[in-house]
Amino acid sequence: MNNNIIVLYIGSDPHVEDQLKGLSLRSKWEIQQLPALQSHSDLASVNADLCLFDLDHKDEKEADQIVEMLAANGLYVIFLTATDNEELYLRFSKKVPAGFLVKPLARLPLRSLIETSVFYMNSEHRTQVIWQSWKEEEELQESFYIKNNHKLIKVRQFDILAVMADDNYCVIITPQRRHAVKISLRRMKQKLSTLLFKQIHRNYIIQLPKVESVDLSTGE
To answer: Is the pLDDT of residue 140 over 70?
Structure first.
């Protein structure tokens, strides 16, 4: 079983292609592209989970034929167009489960609509793929790597008790050890979750749920 969400893009807009490529690198998506859809066999060869259909440069007859083929294959369709045309949306949404985005596309609305569409399909496997993608992305954002001698060590934010400024370095304090990193306290603060961490002194940032007090003379 394919562990990726297969997104079929019918169109040839370079901007859309770039957006999809960028999103596919971060998510569990596989992007397939067809400049046009000629027959049902084209769809069968792709085996897509959902379709992005670019209506620009398609005449009404061609668009209707493609929508009929997509509907016959039970695909959820997200229509892309350069104009805010409610009439088009209403016409096609009667034929297929549909979303509608106006170009130029912003990455977050595109991503959220694709992921919402997957949940709409009511497929347990595809839903799990999205959940796993979110979990991996969250873990990546909540961790970072620091250099220790010739090794890169992964540090999870939740494991950090406090960060202490020491000249041009920061000392990252975890239950296991201390890590000296060449970074300013200001830059380090930007990397940390504002929900967990608070700067309580010009030289100290602490994780609020885990630290009750700090001895300024010893850093303990």
So the answer is: no
